[in-house]
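Interim report to the steering committee. The following record documents the input for DUF403 domain-containing protein (336 residues).
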Amino acid sequence: MLSRVAENLYWMARYIERAEDTARLLSVNSHLMLDLPGRLPLGWAPLIEMTGSLEAFTARHKDFDERNVVHFLCADTDNDISIISALASARENLRTTRDVVPREIWEEVNQLYLSVADHAENGVSPRRRDSFLKSVIRSCQALTGLIEGTLSHGPARTFIELGRQLERADMTTRIVDVRSASLLPQNPEELLPFENLQWMSVLKSLTAYQMYRQQVRLRVRGPDVLRFLLQDPNLPRSIACSLETLGHELTLLPRQDRPAATVSLVRADVVDADIQALAHSPSKLHLFIDELQIGFAAIHDTLSATYFVNDDSVPRVTQTQSQSQSQSHAGDNDND
């Protein structure tokens, strides 16, 4: 397979996963805000932090209100990580390589983009938001099903899976990092009555609540949720599972020694993490997540150096760029 084709498929998968995860975040946050009293210091700003786009948001908006955040993450074509931008980039990456995948996959990506573009042009009103976000999530999942059910096992499928799993692991760390900052003990008197509800929102953001109840069989508690989302080997959206899948997919490719070694190192950090210590120290958890995201950037860099060519003809938001945005914001919180 040509490296250019491999790179396009890799980024197509990352963008589809990014659009789905962003839609899920907005949906869960909308429902959570209805359940929490207005005096709690949550709101919409954490979503901007989760996506690592604080600098881009503040350049265009002064207030982190519902209207600005929803538009920025759904319909802002100048925002590289918005749903509409992610799907436009996924569509463009696939357009030039659609001859290597079944036609139905291209048609689904194209239709998804056109549908979201139509909603974005008309505005994502609060009344239409829930159905809009559900349609994005279902369409992305339908696309994943099409890939699983129609694309032959080979290099094209492998690079799609690499992109999906790396983006998924990155989003999981962002959700855990930013949302847990308001859950771990900083203002216990105010947050304690709603702690379980907030941890439930973390699980629901990753479609992991039912699996947590089935496998953990305990009430929703911070340490148990962290262990489940970081280390569970069977949850598709846990970091350990995503990295395990990454490592397996790499065994199907030539010249995989360096990328596979990088994945193994990052996964070892996850599996060996002291969850109790992280759960009781927001600063330790934040530092640990930062180190994981640096590890994800290293995985991307080794994949790029091994398999891809540098070509700026198709716009991309690289792991390194999004990581630098997140770290820039993290530095602002070091003295909190």
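Residues 317-336 have pLDDT under 50 and may be disordered. The committee is asked to note this result when reviewing the revised timeline.
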